[in-house]
Amino acid sequence: MHHHRSPGAAARAAAAVVLLALALSLGAAPALGATAGPDLVYRPEDLAFPLAGAARVIGDADVEAVLARLLGKNAFLIPLLQLDRGDRRGKIRRLLQLEAAVRSVDLKDLGKFENALRLDAFRDLWQSIQGVRGKAATGAELASLERAVETYGMLVDLAKRLGSTTKRGRYAWLLAMARDELSRRVKDQEKVRVLKQLIREDLLEALAHLGSRPERDAPATKADIEEKLKTLDQEFGGLNPLHAPTGQGITTTSAMGLRRHPKTGRIRPHEGIDLASAGCDGWKVVAVGPGRVVRSDWNGGYGFMVVVRHDLDAGVFYSRYGHLRNEGRAAPGTVVGRGDPIGLCNNTGVSTGPHLHFEVRRGSENGKPIDPHPLLTGSAAALPVE
User: Fold this and answer.
1) pTM of the full structure
2) DSSP state of 355
3) Residue 344 is inside which H or E element, if any?
4) What are the average pLDDT values for consecutive 10-residue runs of the chain, which has 386 residues?
5) Under a CB-based contact definition with an 8 Å cutoff, are residues 134 and 314 in contact?
6) Residue 298: beta bridge partners?
């Protein structure tokens, strides 16, 4: 028995091909926003996701079969609509490949689709952060970060749809990190402001869904998230780390640079500044900016020392506070805000009297020292750019 398509069906098929040809010629699909909405809309470049492993590979024969099914006896439209061009055949093939991949996804869990997106996002984020902060980003770095933001947004959306609380928290944290890296590299201050607000929302979502107990493979802990929230809220610098009682002044008794050591008499570099005042023994020492304590112990000539790591737009910096009392020191791992107490002034180590030795280093705890004196009255803008 032969089945004949009605003239209306043939017309609808031909119209479908015309619309397909128009779409291919325009080459534009709605762009996916920074956060995935209720429906996932893909751009042509999104079809490059390595999803082929989740479905059979589409070839030229599949494209021919689809065109034959759509056109039937109207195959003469192929050259008229320029559907015999290699680039248009390639786009049709990629669309079919995406359809096959999506059909193969088991929506009972994130499965292979999640893995493909996750690996893509991680690669894009990792490649982009290889650039040095504080320097102009390349076009490739910005493109990688924008892709990572879009992909982690899709993963958060998938986790929400499927009710996966833990994954929702993990992907929200990674989305915040991708947006944070992007905000450090864009120049438009209005875009930076919007990104900062979105980062805050991502971090709060991560805090709500990661869980209170740390997991071995979790990308972040509660302390990580709290540190990032404080870094978003607070400035770095603009205060004296030696906190004087009301009405008391503080003097810089020794600047950074070469000097004759007051204890040993040798001429050697002084890699920070000394801050003191009459009766400063026991005064509070506070963090110069938001960060996390990475060291709190005895350090030779520095005596008891606390070191705080600060992850700033200008880079990673370490502030070091020496000659502290043993008691009252903040413990390693403590998340601190700007002005939070981390110790008490004293004269432990090699010292001629109670004072605070204050250093700031770039990149690592023992990295290149920079003059911290401008930070006593200025913000992170006072930090030198490499």
Assistant:
1) 0.64
2) B
3) strand 341-344
4) 49 48 42 36 38 56 80 78 78 73 54 64 62 63 82 86 85 90 86 93 92 62 89 90 93 92 84 95 96 96 96 90 97 94 96 95 93 87 67
5) yes
6) 304
